[in-house]
Specification:
This protein is α/β, with parallel strands linked by helices. The protein folds into two domains: 230 residues, Glycogen Phosphorylase B (Rossmann fold, 3-Layer(aba) Sandwich), CATH 3.40.50.2000; 163 residues, Glycogen Phosphorylase B (Rossmann fold), CATH 3.40.50.2000. The chain is built from twelve helices and 17 strands. The strands form three sheets. The chain has a nine-stranded mixed β-sheet, with helices on both faces.
């Protein structure tokens, strides 16, 4: 079978494409038919014909290919991104294997759940008449490079890469880095999680690199004044000053360092609040009169608890938890040694501290400094809120996407 014949097989008849939008349980289908001329022959996809009635400018159809399942915290991000892109004449659709179970957020973006394979992706791109495909796919997915061949090489669509530049857990992996470099070469634009990750992209590609600071779409209004003690009582927390760590507890986060620092302080007025699922059993032997293991807490209740605490501490593997912390005005304390995109938000000596890796005494000293100096903690808290509202804002992420998409769609090759 020829390549041309393969595309015709995919597009020769009407096909129902499931779209999930609106309520989480709502699934509908839209029929997309290949346009035909007066003689009944297929005339191929019609691209960039939709227009914005308000702006009278072409609307480009964008498909975000999300490998695996969409995690629940990405759902509000994609909701906001879809609205923002629409205002800039880009119509966003997301496809993946599904959405992570337990999602509590209304799905407002156009969503196509399907088994991701090269054939299915080609069919969706063709029938959906997409102009641009954003690749948000890990190396472990076998359809990754065949999709580049099909969508970029055969179907001649624009492609945008989104990620961290390379695998930050294995930054020196030669073969994997060569694969990333190949992706960067194939794409029309590159979106990075943070500006400092540009060092992982070859200089010859810097002209097409754009930054969309990795963040969350948060709408928490804040804890009303005077409610801090009420929240602490609700969770049976009776310590006056509290350090919190929230998220999925894993070995790479080095929680044992935090526990050791709290024990070294030996202060009955200081509590350690641990919130989240213990997926690797790292908290099994963590006990103490001033240690509160609360398990998973969701929705605004977790933000109420964050707002009722005084400091956020995560010794290792800093990720999007810093965005949650800064949203609630919590200074952030961590150890050096782990690179992440989100570490760009932490300004040592301004909104948090970065201490030497493995130095429990310095970790305890930094935590005590913030806990006992109310004026310093308030200054750090205000700086954390500013960082969260500016550099970690969802608008900053959306701006990066718009810049990359405009660049990709303006290229004539």
């Amino acid at each position: 079978m020829t390549v041309k014949g393969s595309i015709e097989d995919l597009t020769s008849e009407s096909r129902a494409i499931p779209i999930r939008s609106g309520l989480r349980s709502q699934t509908t289908a839209i029929n997309v038919t290949t346009p035909r001329n007066s003689e009944g022959h297929g005339i191929g996809p019609v691209r960039s014909k939709a227009t914005s009635s308000a702006l009278k400018t072409p609307t480009f159809r964008v498909l975000l290919l999300h490998g695996g399942q969409v995690p629940h915290y990405r759902v509000p991000v994609y909701n906001h991104l879809r609205r923002y892109l629409r205002e800039q004449s880009f119509e966003l659709t997301v496809t993946s294997e599904g959405i992570q179970p337990g999602n509590r957020t209304l799905v407002e973006f156009d969503f196509v759940p399907m088994h991701l394979s090269v054939r299915n992706i080609m069919g969706l791109v063709w029938h959906g008449r997409f102009d641009v495909v954003i690749m948000f796919v890990d190396m472990r997915h076998l359809y990754l490079f065949p999709t580049y061949v099909a969508v970029k090489g055969i179907m001649r669509r624009k492609m945008v890469w989104w990620g961290q530049g390379r695998d930050l857990a294995e930054p020196d992996a030669v073969l994997k880095n060569a694969a990333y470099a190949t992706e960067h070469a194939l794409c029309d634009a590159i979106i990075l999680y943070a500006e400092h990750l540009k060092k992982y992209v070859a200089c010859r590609f810097h002209h097409k690199v754009f930054t969309a600071n990795n963040t969350l779409a948060l709408t928490y209004p804040g804890l009303p004044p005077g409610n801090k003690e009420k929240v602490l009582r609700e969770f049976k927390i009776n310590t006056l000053k509290n350090i919190i760590c929230m998220g999925r507890f894993q070995k790479r986060k080095r929680i044992e360092q935090l526990v050791a620092a709290v024990r070294l302080m030996d202060r009955l007025d200081i509590g350690l609040i641990l919130v989240g699922p213990d997926t690797e059993g790292v908290l099994e032997n963590v006990e103490g009169a001033n240690i509160y293991k609360l398990g998973p807490i969701y929705d605004d209740r977790r933000f109420d608890l964050l707002s009722a605490a005084d400091i956020y501490c995560l010794p290792g593997a800093v990720g999007l938890s810093i965005v949650d912390a800064f949203q609630c005005g919590l200074p952030f304390v961590t150890e050096e040694g782990d690179e992440s995109a989100e570490m760009a938000y932490l300004k040592h000596g301004e909104n948090g501290f970065v201490v030497p890796r493995g130095d429990v005494r310095q970790l305890a000293k930094s935590l005590l400094l913030l806990l006992d100096d109310n004026e310093l903690r308030m200054r750090f808290s205000n700086a954390a809120r500013r960082e969260g509202s500016v550099n970690a804002s969802i608008e900053r992420l959306c701006e990066g996407f718009v810049q990359a998409l405009r660049y990709a769609t303006s290229r004539s090759h």
